[in-house]
Amino acid sequence: MISRTALIGGIEVKITKKSTLKNLYIRINPPKGNVTISAPLHYPDDDISLFVLKKLPEINAVRARMRSQSRQTKREFISGESHYLWGKPYRLDVAVGTKKYSIEKMPNKILFSVPKGASTANKEKVFNEWYRSELKRVLQSLIPIVEKRMNLSANEYRIKNMKTRWGTCNIDKKRIWINLQLAKKPIECLEYVLVHEMVHLLEANHTHKFHALVGKYYPAWKDAKKTLEKMPLDYLK
Fold first, then answer.
1. Phi-psi region of 23 (alpha: psi -120 to 50; beta: other; left: phi over 0)
2. What tens digit of pLDDT does each residue of 92-118 get?
3. How many CB atoms neighbour CB 11 within 10 A?
4. Residue 104 three-state SS
5. FRET pair for 64, CA 20 to 30 Å: which of 27, 47, 55, 150?
6. Model-level pTM greater than 0.85?
7. Residue 22 class from Cβ within 10 Å (0-12 exposed, 13-18 middle, 19+ buried)?
């Protein structure tokens, strides 16, 4: 593996070359829009520079949008905080002094019962496990619908708390990862990400054909993508 940093078109780009890669990949990482390139070991440097320069208008647009998108402040899991579930904000009501942790969703608030002396880290861990159970519940209903629509399935669907991507697809293993944070977004955003990752099993890269396939299997994908870009993101150090 070879790593280096280059200034291309006025943007600092971290380039990593690996012998295990077959294609070139570009990623723009939140919250500041840092650009990374992953490429095959013997991919020419001039071709990488040319690729970035051709993509420069799109890169700058994504970086500007990423830097302007609002983020929540760090959650302390105390009464009065706002916590999202499926796109709707709920007021958190914390009850202290119970023997066990429990979470109950009500019409406009979430009741969070915690033991006395519960740390913020433990409360966050319990809350994330609750989000995981919610996401798993909805995915169990959504996956068969999408698989039938696309006449396609992955070998595995997993959930992971990711900082920079809504989902990923391991094409060789046919394994799809879904970001835990999607439990906080409207369900149509989850469906869009699921379709997007499954399309990678048909078309590896983000080509015109790729986006055409996403549109075929989820026509409202642009609206869902805009929703993801407008909603406040989680706190990130």
1. beta
2. 999 999 999 999 999 999 999 999 999
3. 17
4. strand
5. 47
6. no
7. exposed
